[in-house]
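Lecture notes, unit on protein representations.

Consider one protein chain, 303 amino acids long.
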Amino acid sequence: MLPILYLAVLIDLTLGEPPIYIHPVVWVGKISERLIVPYKGYLYGVFVWTISIIPVLILLLFPLYIPNVIIQIILLTFFLKTSFSIKMLYELVKKSIPLNKENRKYAQQLVRRNVYELDDPHVASAVIESLFESLVDGIASPIFWFLIFGYPGALLQRFSNTMDSMVGYKTLELQKEGWFSAKVDTLMNYIPSRLTGILMIIAGYILGYKPRNLCKALKSSRIESLNARYPISFASSILHVRLEKPGYYSVGEGNLPREDDIRRALRLFVVTLILYFTFISIIYYYLYGISLLTYPYGLIELI
């Protein structure tokens, strides 16, 4: 199915996001939104996760069994594309510069914090943090699970990440209900976050951005998320800037980022993605081969 992945990437880079009414991630979010009840317990959280994800996932498995190959390819490509968003992320970050009041509407779409209350350097920090955290959550992780479990794996990861963003908060109202969604998301992003971090370092050297005090930045990071701390800390070290969420954490040394640092971050993002897709493609080839819809050869068949 590797060609299906690259068709999906092509659609993403040329057409971007589909309308929300045919976007499976939106469906999952809408279902969970109706089911969320504040102060519910752990079991109810498992129920919300299951009812929000499993029916949509089952529905999207039907294209695998369509006998018409052309229709099957179209549907699989379309739905696989909805598991990641490269163009939208890149364009939102790019449109956030120059750093002015007008462009903060784009930065606000990237982060939860209120960017209208921040100065320009902290807005730049928020944008860079979100760029590399989203690189893991919204691109690298679904592609990784596509490698492991194919088309269903990519969708499952994306839906799980959506559930974390809907209910996985440590507030009093959602602390128990969101526990399961948060843990599943943490587990699914564990390997992709670290793999992406390694490739970010290589991309940094390719671009001439030599990491500085990388281990120190990672170890001293007070970022609560076990996975987000890797891409954010590595970005801080590679770009030689301090990334800071006021009142929560400060990562790295030096000055807060400026507009030019956002541009450098975008270059780092692009090269990291190229390395990531190259790595995944090589591993995929040796595991499965490169046929369109089946797995005719590779290590998996031999096993």
